[in-house]
Structures are given as C-alpha cells and as structure tokens.
Amino acid sequence: MAADVFIEDSLSYLTKTKKLILFYSGFCFFYSTLLSLSILGNSASNAIAKRTIGSIKFDQESISQLVLVVCDFYQQPRLQCRQSNISLVIPQLKEKILSELNLYLLKSVENLYTDMEKDLFVSIYANVIYEAGYLRASGKVKLNKEEIAKKI
Fold it and tell me: Cα–Cα distance between 103 and 118 in angstroms, integer?
C-alpha cells in the first residue's frame, strides 16, 4: 500500500517536473528568439548600409546590393537555428528585412515619384528584391546570388 502511494507520488512529481522543464525550455527558446530578432533587425539595417556603402540611391548597383543583402541575411539564421525552429523564425525575418528594404527604397526614390506612387512602387520593389534573395537562400533557385542580383 505504501509502495503504491510512493510510486503514484513519484510519477506525479516526474510528470510535473517534465512539464516544468518543457515550459522553461519553451520560454528560453521564445526569449532567445525575441533577442535574436532584435539583433537581426539591427543587422538588416547594418547589412544594407554596409552593402550600399551608406549611399542611398536608386540604381541597378544598389538594387543588386539589396538582393545580396537578403541572400546573406538568410544565411545567418540557417547557421544559428535548429531546423525544427527555423519555420517559426522565417516570418519574423521576412518582416524585418522587408521593413528595412522599404525604408531604404523610400529614401532612394524620394524625388522620383509622388507620394501615392511611392506607396505602390516601393512595396513592389521591396517584395521583388526580397523574393529574389529568399528564393536563392532557400535553394529554390540554382543560380548563384551574384547572377540573380544582376538580373533584378
């Protein structure tokens, strides 16, 4: 009888401990993901500044460099995230890099378009640049990143 109670209590304790461990490991992953996204947001703007040499202009060379930024941006998390977690991070990465692309492009086309045109064209340009880099980084396109960057 006492042994049954002991076994039952032990199983209950182990179950609670397992749930607690799973909770804390999930919390740690969530916290590290938030911290990583903050760092990646900063690294996206830094990568754009570095690739465009701090120059804000709208020309073929700048567009090519922005495609390369996206390709490089997606190489970082591949090295840092487990495969099972990468699908949780991709939407946030997309949001961060698109936001930075939009900011750069808004500044670069400032005197080329009206405000209404900018709203349309900047979004289109940012998404084309993003997709080109993302398709290359995800392996869906076999061209090397420099070839893709020149064709956009």
Answer: 11
